Amino acid sequence: AFARCGALTSVTFSDSLASIGSSAFQNCGALSSLTFGKNLTSIGADAFRSCKSLKKLTLPKDLDIISPHAFLNCAALEAVQLPEALSTLTEQVFYGCAKLENLDLPKNIDKIDTEAFYNCAALKSVTVRNPECEIFADDLVFANKYGTHNTVIIGANDSTAKKFAEKYGYP
After folding, report:
1. Cα(65)–Cα(21) distance, integer angstroms
2. CB-facing half-sphere around the CA of 41: CA atoms within 13 A
3. Model pTM greater than 0.90?
4. Measured between alpha carbons, how far is 83 from 7 in angstroms, rounded to an integer?
5. Do 34 and 55 touch, CB atoms closer than 8 A?
6. Residue 34's beta-bridge partner residues?
7. Mean pLDDT over all residues of the chain?
8. pLDDT tens for residues 88-129?
9. Among positive and negative, which fits the CA dihedral 61, 84, 118, 111?
10. What is the DSSP string of the chain?
11. 126 and 151 Cβ atoms separated by less than 8 Å
12. Phi then psi for 35, rounded to 5 degrees?
């Protein structure tokens, strides 16, 4: 719909909008501000891919689907507040968000898919609140672009997060 609109800097979504389609705002390089309506429940694949000026995401509380690659290569993204309705972080959902530093994943997140946070070069720590969160069996889920494991994975003792960190050599 608005893909590749280079001059688009801000979008405010109506409360009546329930879904944002695939690739809707892909490659809107100047897009720096998003205000989501309170009834948004779904963001499609690649919806905001390569929106390189987007710095902060506060997602609505009832959002329960963020499709793969939705925020891939949003290089300026520094902060994400995930909603309580969301249960899965899909494949490469925040891949390449180079300025994202710290994440606190709420207890409702029960699955983190392949390369969800791969190539997030500044990522220092991830707190996984759900002790039984299923984390894709791949060392690249939280790795930087060189495949190194600099990110500290924080989880309860005997949690899947702790076991993942130990298995793949995260600090």
Report:
1. 12
2. 3
3. yes
4. 29
5. no
6. 11
7. 95
8. 999 999 999 999 999 999 999 999 999 999 999 999 999 999
9. negative
10. --TT-TT--EEE--TT--EE-TTTTTT-TT--EEE--TT--EE-TTTTTT-TT--EEE--TT--EE-TTTTTT-TT--EEE--TT--EE-TTTTTT-TT--EEEE-TT--EE-TTTTTT-TT--EEEE--TT-EE-S-TTSS--TTS---PEEE--TT-HHHHHHHHHT--
11. yes
12. -125, 110
Nearest C-alpha neighbor of 123 from the set 82, 60, 52, 171: 171
- Token pair 């060392």: residue: 139
Which tokens belong to 165?
Answer: 């960190």
Other CB atoms closer than 10 Å to residue 111's CB: what's the count?
A: 14
Tokens of 138: 């791949």
Q: How far, in Å, CA of 121 to CA of 109, rounded?
A: 22
Residue 163 tokens, joined:
């076991």
